Request: fold
Amino acid sequence: MKCPPHRSPWLARRGWVQAVSTVVLNLAFLRFLAPLKSAGGFCFPVLNCWACPGAVTSCPLGALQHAAGEARLLVASGTSWLAVIPYYILGTLFIFSVTLGRFMCGWLCPFGWLQDLLAKLSKYKLRPPPWAGYLRYAFLVGLVLVVPYYTSVQWFSKICPQGALQGGLLQPLLHPELRGGIGAWWWFKEAMLVAWLLSFVFVRRPFCRLMCPLGAIFSLFYGLSVLQIRVDPHKCVDCGLCEQVCPAGLNPREQVSSHLCISCLECQRCPQGAIAAVPVWRKDRREETVGLEEQVP
Ligand code: SF4
Ligand code: SF4
Ligand code: SF4
Reply:
């Protein structure tokens, strides 16, 4: 089935928004932005590695692992629990989660954009089992919080493919003096990166679906997010187009409020206008429609 154009010009430019976001988040080469990075950086919740030579913002996952690793040492040395909680990172995550939520994933995340780009290379797609989406929570609790807390080692960063790409590849490329430090772990991490890149061609958003702890945090707050996506079942004619265009591999008719939805709004291409993003305070469109029908004698 031919993919119809978006009715809204803004929605049709999602790829451009993702591209601009990626560039803007990596402009530390510009002299006036460099102090931002050296000052510790602004924590922006998308997957954009702090180790990247161009990164202006810091990744909350790295910051959370660092805070977890420090917390045990500080508490052991007598610091109160209240003083070791990373309020700034948790506050940032909370604010972005309840405002933009997973729109960060669908529109602003550089690693999400990379997955969308590579997905265009093949029409053949594999579908991971639905339960696999819960692995993200295991990565969040295990490798971002608990294991770094007990080992003071940032284990998620050690296997993060965005880190392997932006930090692991670009740093030695731009700084030859670093190449001497390349060891077995570096090769292992880059091999995993290659495997991930291949998977991006044949699975829709596999990293977002299976591993990303940041997406998992957004998913936890999905119900509070300011914009919610609604399907009006009375308008749907079951053409299947929304399922065909969904970059997350969902069936929006049934899974539009799924914890795996990345709020990209691609399903709003629906020719019947059955899918729309509405502010959370507006009544469910489905309820409104049902209510009207019930008044008809
Ligand atoms: S879930 Fe995907 S798009 Fe969202 S932050 Fe993680 S990598 Fe980026
Ligand atoms: S919601 Fe729209 S695009 Fe999806 S199956 Fe129904 S009519 Fe087709
Ligand atoms: S259900 Fe719609 S908004 Fe959610 S990921 Fe799929 S196409 Fe995007």
In short: The two ends are 39 Å apart (CA to CA). The chain is about 55% helix and 5% strand. The first helix runs from residue 9 to 12.
